[in-house]
């Protein structure tokens, strides 16, 4: 089976092999529930610097999480893809891949190919304000500190009810 580049991944496929670096992993918490999680999310990047989001359901977390590690490169098979969610995407890709207990991960340990350690979709600062109320793709802001001042108490003088 030949390796499919991320740019060629389409929704509703399950006959593929990808070669990617897992550049970011996180466990989303379920809103409003103490210490309950909703699986595992990953950002995958390939040699062409394309990225795609991967998801693992909570039911598969215990079987999958010990097999993968952020920063490592893998050949991954027995995965499937679906359409990416319409809002709150992490990367601008039409598909999203899903791993489960049957997914296989072959870590590439020999001299790895050049696959970036992270993927960013930077936006010019002048365009940032136009994205404030848009939820199609999540926006991180990178900035720099220009001044440091002591903290001020802004609640002084406010009436409490």
Automatic annotation (TrEMBL):
Coiled coil: none annotated. Residues 6-105 form the Replication protein A 70 kDa DNA-binding subunit B/D first OB fold domain. SUPFAM superfamilies: Nucleic acid-binding proteins. Pfam families: DUF223. Signal peptide: none annotated. PANTHER family: OS03G0429900 PROTEIN. This is Replication protein A 70 kDa DNA-binding subunit B/D first OB fold domain-containing protein.
